[in-house]
């Protein structure tokens, strides 16, 4: 049976909010192919194309996609089967006032390097150096609990998480805040390192094969996204500072560990300091994103 295709041409958003109109309603458990455009809407095609400022509308997220039966308090599981690059080039760039080293006088702001995709689709080329293509979905999230939030900003609903683990072979779990959940995604990268230091990865259009499932009455409620990579469970949190983000991610991990092992919160806290660890997703967006990882041998999700 062919998958339904939902394209950015069908609809896309630049904000996640509490009231979102779906472009498609998926059945619980339905598998879809979701087509995205690059984060800059195809505006950057050559090294001479420079970004003088971050656009007001950036990170177009295909959707929203309503999922039948999803209600506040549920969890939406997004099982990512494949992420395929869908154009012959990516682009990595700087922009004034953006990025980890935005004030470094020795670094050009703006600057652009086109990263051509090789004929077999296995690598991108950066200044003659081949880099493996490992596609990442940069922006992915659901309708918010209240505030309307730009697709440039990550928060409890997901959004611009820029997390390398959001890729093929992983399942991302989101708290559901509104009826239908209202999933949207975009801002993919052909390659991106943890931290996303310059403010971008190799921005590129992709096709995503994903299965969307509703988990009703989860044994552990979620406040923020969780990623299961198969090798590890990782709680994701975004906040104004890295210290705040890692504290939130660790707190969410304590809830999962306490439930799985019957630990007190104290024992969960002590155990979290023995296994896994803290990881940085990105440090360049209006809020930074961190994750707390625990190997799967020490943690089974309760849903």
Automatic annotation (TrEMBL):
Coiled coil stretches, renumbered: none
GO molecular-function terms, A-Z: hydrolase activity, acting on carbon-nitrogen (but not peptide) bonds, in linear amides
Protein name, per record: Acetamidase/Formamidase
Pfam family membership, one: FmdA_AmdA
Gene3D superfamilies noted in UniProt: Acetamidase/Formamidase-like domains
Domain of life (superkingdom): Archaea
Annotated SUPFAM superfamilies: Acetamidase/Formamidase-like
């Amino acid at each position: 049976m062919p998958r339904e295709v939902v394209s950015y041409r069908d609809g896309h958003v630049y904000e996640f909010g509490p009231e979102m109109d779906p472009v498609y309603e998926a059945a619980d458990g339905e598998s879809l192919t979701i087509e995205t455009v690059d984060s800059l809407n195809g505006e950057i095609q050559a090294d001479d194309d420079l970004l003088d400022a971050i656009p007001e509308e950036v990170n177009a997220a295909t959707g929203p996609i309503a999922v039948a039966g999803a209600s506040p308090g549920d969890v939406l599981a997004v099982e990512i089967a494949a992420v395929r690059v869908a154009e012959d080039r990516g682009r990595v760039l700087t922009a004034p006032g953006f990025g980890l080293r935005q004030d470094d006088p020795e670094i050009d702001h703006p600057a652009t390097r086109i990263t051509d995709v090789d004929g077999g689709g296995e690598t991108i080329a950066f200044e003659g150096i081949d880099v493996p293509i490992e596609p990442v979905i940069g922006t992915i999230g659901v309708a918010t609990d209240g505030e309307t939030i730009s697709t440039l900003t990550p928060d409890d609903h997901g959004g611009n998480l820029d997390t390398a683990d959001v890729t093929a072979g992983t399942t991302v779990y989101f708290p559901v805040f509104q009826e239908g959940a209202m999933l949207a995604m975009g801002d993919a990268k052909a390659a991106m390192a943890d931290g996303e230091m310059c403010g971008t990865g190799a921005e590129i259009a992709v096709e995503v094969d994903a299965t969307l499932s509703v988990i009703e009455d989860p044994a552990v409620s979620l406040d923020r996204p969780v990623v299961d990579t198969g090798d590890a469970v990782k709680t994701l949190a975004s906040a104004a500072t890295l210290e705040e983000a890692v504290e939130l991610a660790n707190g969410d991990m304590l809830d999962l560990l306490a439930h799985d092992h019957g630990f007190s919160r104290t024992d969960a806290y002590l155990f979290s300091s023995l296994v896994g660890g803290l990881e940085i997703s990105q440090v360049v967006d209006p809020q930074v994103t961190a994750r707390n990882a625990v190997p799967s041998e020490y943690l089974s999700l309760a849903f």
